[in-house]
Amino acid sequence: MKTYSAKPSDINHEWFIVDAENKVLGRLASDIAQILRGKHKPIFTPHMDTGDYVVIINAEKVRVTGKKEQMKSYFRHTEYPGGTKITMLKNMREKHPERIITNAVKGMLPHTKLGRKIIKKLKVYAGSEHPHEAQNPKKLELN
Predict the structure, then answer these.
(1) 6 with 22: CB under 8 angstroms?
(2) Which of 112, 90, 5, 96 is nearest to 59 (CA)?
(3) Which of 72, 109, 113, 121 is most buried, taking the most CB atoms under 10 A from its CB?
(4) Which residues pair with residue 17 across a beta bridge?
(5) Alpha helices in the chain (DSSP H)
């Protein structure tokens, strides 16, 4: 039995649209990460980008469980001395709600060149409007 390895000519990238309203953040992010990587396809090859494009709308209405709204924080550093920046989830939701989902999905992808290529296929929008109607995205219902 031979192991199948996808060729670039075999790969077909589709577009999906997901409504994040009232979805739990972690569960949504893990499902999106699987679609971006292409693990839902029979031609999945770990070292190639076989995944699809995903457009997420209503990112500001995503749900978190427990006390994460007050307790969860995001850390970043400006690369200057004393440049530590910590942002709480409730502040992030007010200013940049799309970054909440982007950071969650990014943490579930490989931290390699391939992961940086895959995350570019994720398009997140705070409201219900998006500029990707020309790609005819299919509505995707997640559990």
Answers:
(1) no
(2) 96
(3) 109
(4) 55, 139
(5) 25-37, 68-71, 89-95, 97-106, 113-118
Token pair 């400006």 is at which residue? 78
Tens digits of pLDDT across the chain (143 residues): 888 899 999 999 999 999 999 999 999 999 999 999 999 999 999 999 999 999 999 999 999 999 999 999 999 999 999 999 999 999 999 999 999 999 999 999 999 999 999 999 999 999 999 999 999 999 999 87
Spatial separation of the C-alpha atoms in residues 62 and 100, rounded to whole Å? 9
Both structure tokens of 3: 């192991």
What domains, with CATH codes, occur in the chain?
Answer: 15-139 (3.90.1180.10)
Amino acid at 12: N
Report the distance separating Cα 80 and Cα 91, nearest Å. 23
Q: Residue 58, by phi and psi: left (phi above 0), alpha (psi -120 to 50) or beta?
A: left
Structure tokens at 4: 């199948």
**Token representation of residue 42:** 């029979």
Give which of 41, 39, 25, 51 is closest to 103, Cα–Cα: 25
